[in-house]
Design goal:
Blueprint: H1 33-42, H2 48-58, H3 65-68, E1 75-76, E2 79-82, E3 85-90, E4 94-97, E5 105-107, E6 114-116, H4 123-141, E7 142-146, E8 149-154, E9 157-165, H5 174-177, E10 185-187, E11 192-194, H6 199-206, E12 211-218, H7 221-226
Parallel strand pairs: 1-5
Antiparallel strand pairs: 2-3, 3-4, 5-6, 7-8, 8-9, 9-12, 10-11
Length: 235
């Protein structure tokens, strides 16, 4: 009786082995968006036809690259020029100026070359610009003095504002149901009574979470001078 060899594996057929034995090359993984951007950046200034040829040569084995056309999401290929301004033809928004097109690269409508979009901002750059604008807007109307003291400009007047922590109960109906009046908080900067729905407005006003302005007074001339809040005409 002959026992079967459980470790036996049939020899690979001719042409199905690895590359060193003359077989076909294994399929490559589809390139990452970062790899595609790097590829496009390295071909800026070249004709679009040569870029397409180089892409086919570089990623011809990559699964799904040609079929999905994912690399084309980085390039605006349908462009035109009118009175010196470049326009991009998008599938969703139609024809839009290059300034607002969400493409990192575009094909020049007259030269036919691959060009980097000078108006394009990455998500990280957009977040940085958004944060910079927020800080600038906050600085125009508010300054930190200490952890629980700030100065705020309300209208044309600067005030010293004292802060307190707040904690809104999860259920605001229970105290009233037991015969106890619900505590109300009045914010001196917003100029109104606040509740749990004002959390985000309070964070925008004070630049931090969990505080509200419970008392204020107008700044004296000396205080405004020391804080650099005087107009140039008064300095």
């Amino acid at each position: 009786m002959v026992k079967a060899n459980r470790n036996f594996r049939p020899a690979p057929k001719h042409g199905a082995g690895n590359a060193s034995l003359g077989g076909t090359q294994p399929r490559l993984r589809a390139p990452t968006p970062a790899a595609l951007r790097s590829f496009l950046a390295s071909h800026v200034g070249q004709s679009w036809k040569s870029v397409c040829d180089a892409h086919r040569h570089s990623f011809r084995e990559a699964e799904g690259t040609e079929r999905s056309g994912s690399w084309m999401t980085h390039v605006a290929t349908k462009t035109s020029s009118k009175q010196g301004r470049i326009r991009v033809h998008t599938p969703d928004a139609g024809m839009v100026p290059l300034e607002v097109a969400h493409y990192e690269f575009f094909v020049h409508p007259e030269l036919g070359t691959l060009v980097r979009n000078p108006y394009y901002l990455s998500q990280e750059q957009k977040e940085k610009e958004r944060e910079l604008r927020r800080v600038e807007e906050l600085h125009k109307r508010m300054r930190h003095v200490s952890p629980f003291v700030q100065v705020h400009r309300i209208g044309a007047v600067w005030y010293l504002v004292e802060l307190r922590h707040f904690r809104f109960p999860e259920k605001t109906v229970e105290p009233e149901a037991k015969g106890h009046p619900r505590e109300s908080l009045f914010d001196v900067v917003l100029g109104r009574t606040i509740d749990a729905s004002d959390r985000f407005e309070l964070e925008r006003t004070y630049g931090r979470r969990g505080v509200y302005g419970f008392r204020k007074r107008e700044l004296l001339y000396r205080e405004r001078r020391d804080l650099g809040l005087l107009p140039l005409a008064e300095t």
